[in-house]
Amino acid sequence: MAYRDLRDFVRKLEKEGELKRVRTEVDPILEITEVVQRVGRGAMPHGLVAAQGETKANRLRERNVGPKGATPGDVGPALLFERPRGSRIPLLVNAFGSVRRMALALEVGDLDEVAARIRGFMDLQSPQGLFDKIKMLPKLAELGSFFPKSVKTGDCKEVIHHGKDVNLSDFPVLKCWPQDGGRFITFPLVFTRNPETGKRNVGMYRMQLYDERTTGMHWQTQKHGAEHFRRARAANPEGRIPVSVAVGSDPATAIAGMLPIPPDLDEMMFAGFLRREPVDMVKCETNDLEVPANAEIVLEGYVNLNEMRTEGPFGDHTGFYSLEGEYPVFHVECVTQKKDPIYLTTVVGPPPQEDYFLGYAVERVFLPVMKMQYPEIVDVAMPAEGIFHNLMIVAIRKSYPGHARKIMNAIWSLGQAMFTKVIVVVDHDVDVHDYKQVVWKTLCALDPERDVQFVFGPTDTLDHAARIQDYGSKMGIDATRKWLAEGFTRPWPDEILMDGNTKARIDAIWKTLDI
Ligand SMILES: Cc1cc2nc3c(=O)[nH]c(=O)nc-3n(C[C@H](O)[C@H](O)[C@H](O)COP(=O)(O)O)c2cc1C
Ligand SMILES: [Mn+2]
Fold it and tell me: DSSP E strands: which ranges in 143-279?
């Protein structure tokens, strides 16, 4: 059965030994971030590791090695701060900060199970006979269960504040890093409608608190929320659009906001697919948007199409501050919430942080989708230090000249993979999750002038090195074996591997060598 709501997931995390309660008062201004950094190995101060002694440090390091070798295993436990200073509402962070917790969130033993389910639906073929039709019925029934369901009311309506009673400082909103421009809601689900098609979009876009009733709306240029804003503004520059925000829900729904799915595909339907139960949606009090009925906190309001305000800086997942920029402003007219809500948040910063595991799940879950479109793709990896957009390693089964270049272009045209700054294409026999192997084989396969390609196009708004915000260059490295058909006339050497007979002989005498 799907998680009812966020606290249902908290219970599960606690039962599985994945959650620690913090009962001491800790300040959401900077202090919570520092605690989060200390529980995550990535940012564990050297002094602390040393103080714990070599054994503990080694154990930590071991625990942090995930199933795919180079993948970090976790960034410490989930933390429930029961007494964030200045608020009566407990704060949950790091809830998704490990491969295991991502699997718990999606109720699978292994993330590849989600990928397999997607593959199952993509393999659906026209039935050949009656038997095939009957076999398809459960799948079709399952498909039907993905669609969000409108319900009359929900727990998110237990307490309602209108107008002047709205006070966002009731919530333990984090100021994460010293140079941050203020406090930021970091794990929101932002609901809008495409003004032309009426279709819903849900995105996770951070929101800087300006005062009790207004926040920033960090819609990066290429994101769907930003597109809704632009289209509405083109139609009526003086108008406004309704916006509602849900903070905290069952885990699959909470995650759905960051999924890179095509425009006009409903993230709430995808959430239904992930949790194998429809998401119950309720109408907002003051606008006609719908939000998940199990939300902990809902902010209802609007964005003026002629109003922009300075947002940032914000210590970002690049490990650097994203600079100030001009973004729309969200006016909150109404807050609805549970009687005793849990405030869900996350801290981003130098990698790896919690968001690494959200991205890792995306990498695993969407691999079959990539493979369906490009069957030559064997595997992909996005190392934590590459912050997703900076580096993608792709292994392909190369079968024609220029194949590696074709895959680069495919990736640069594939949704948010357009942002990928560096693509390294390797042959199918390279393990993309073994970064040492990738570095070794890539460098050996390279004639840099011949094999490196630059292109121009959209870049991630957070890329502070791009010459212009949102626009710059990207690089593809063809690290596949070069073929005669590609103009390479020299022989390509074999990789050094010992032969089986010799290995067997040494196996046989190994003990007697006494080494
Ligand atoms: C913790 C977290 C914070 C994020 N903050 C932002 C943000 O402030 N602005 C933004 O445009 N994208 C942000 N993203 C990425 C978007 O959520 C992601 O690109 C998503 O697919 C956008 O939805 P859309 O495709 O419907 O626009 C964030 C992702 C995570 C995991
Ligand atoms: Mn979207």
Answer: 149-150, 159-162, 184-185, 188-193, 200-203, 207-211, 214-216, 240-247
- Confidence band, pLDDT 50/70/90 cuts, at residue 71: low
Ligand (nearest to CA of 362): 1
Q: CA neighbours within 13 Å on the CB side: how many for 371?
A: 19
Report whether pLDDT(144) > 90. no
Q: Could you identify the residue written with the tokens 């005062």?
A: 211
* DSSP β-ladder status, 422-427 and 391-396: parallel
Active-site residue identified among 316, 379, 431, 460: 316
Establish whether 316 is a catalytic residue: yes
Q: What is the 257 CA–ligand 1 centroid distance (Å)?
A: 7
Sign of the torsion angle spanned by Cα atoms 461, 467, 468, 470: negative
User: Is the pTM here over 0.85, yes or no?
Assistant: yes
pLDDT tens sequence across 166-175: 999 999 999 9
Q: What three-state secondary structure class fits 65? A: strand
503 vs 245: CA distance, rounded Å: 62
Distance (Å, rounded) from C-alpha 175 to C-alpha 27?
9
Output the pLDDT for position 124: 73
Tokens of 188: 């929101």
Report pLDDT digits (tens) over 475-484: 999 999 999 9
Instruction: List beta partners, residue 29.
Output: 175
Tell me if residue 507 falls in helix, strand or coil: helix
Kindly identify the ligand whose nearest atom is closest to the C-alpha of 314.
Answer: 1
pLDDT at 142: 80
Judge whether 226 and 219 are in contact, CB under 8 Å: yes
Structure-token pair, residue 14? 């606690």
CB crowding 295-312: b at 16 or more within 10 Å, else e? bbbbbbbbbebeeeeebb
Length of the chain: 515
**Residue 248 to residues 162, 324, 325, 417, Cα–Cα distance (Å):** 20, 27, 27, 27
Least confident of 145-149, 461-465, 480-484: 145-149
pLDDT at position 428 over 70 = yes
Q: To which H or E segment does residue 121 belong?
A: helix 111-122
Cα-to-centroid distance, 347 and ligand 1 (Å): 14
Q: For residue 58, is pLDDT > 50?
A: no
Q: Strand 321-322 and strand 377-381: pairing? A: unpaired
How many A from CA of 258 to the centre of ligand 1? 5
Both tokens of residue 290?
A: 């719908």
**DSSP assignment, residue 463?**
-
Output the pLDDT for position 67: 47
